[in-house]
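To assess whether the prediction recovers the assembly geometry, we first specified each molecular entity separately, as shown.
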Amino acid sequence: MSPAPRVQRICERLIRAACRRLPEDIRAERCREWAAELPAILDDQSIRPGLRRAVRALTYSAGIAWSTRQLSRAGGGARPVRTSQWRNGAIRVRPSDVAVRATVGVAIWLLLIFLLISLGSAFPHLPGWLLMLGLGLAAGFDALCLADIARAGQVRYLPKWAWALICLAQTPLGGIIYLSIGRVGRARPVPSGSGPPGSAQRP
Amino acid sequence: MKLTGPLERVLRVLLADPSASHYGYDLMKAAKLPSGTLYPMLARLQQEGLVDSEWEPQRQDAAGRPPRKYYRLTAEGARVARVELAQAPVPARRARQGTAQPAPGGTQ
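The predicted structure of the complete assembly is given in tokenized form:
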């Protein structure tokens, strides 16, 4: 009946994810400390109704995520674990590559629109099976993109969740943009001289 | 140490009873601070040796509740906090609502 155990699990997962930012020597202890506060929040009878307690626990966990960001910065010595590689120049692509990919992506999209329009004029009264086929294709394409995002070690420019959202929100176009720009795929690494200054000397 | 509003509130709560230990959520409620402000601040205070922390011993009767970490002012921390709060300008409104006002220079 009460949502508390589920909320607690969600919050614990958030906290664990946030703790991954911390240097290894304090990670486990911090994680334990913060997770131990959750029962206190979820059992706090001064906050009513239970839904407000759940919201409180979630904002608490979000605050923990913020804390770990501050702590991992203040820590100085230990680098945060999750650095995205492309920012450091490892798999940057040339800007011209991005332009070509974007153009190809938009071209595919236009082709698709053209195809849809011509199909629409060929069948003035859209038969049900065609509609189902279109929806199925769209869903399949979305699934393909999401699976690709989930499998990818990393994606470019945006965090993974943002790409997933874009793919879902703009069904054909979002996925195409992701595949043409956001996907790391077979990008050739830029030779290490031409990265941004300082990228090569990173310890 | 720069005395910011949130820091002042935390110090007031801790100084209300310098020997009392607080766990994180307790402090959040008493000082009316979000976790994202409180924990970095506690970490900094601990680094400066003003605050001490310890794990509560595992109790058998606690119905499976995991042990908490408790924070407390060190002797040095209590001294510094009194000096800082004595120099603080007019106490913030919200701090006065939240906790009893400790007398500067306190009687302990």
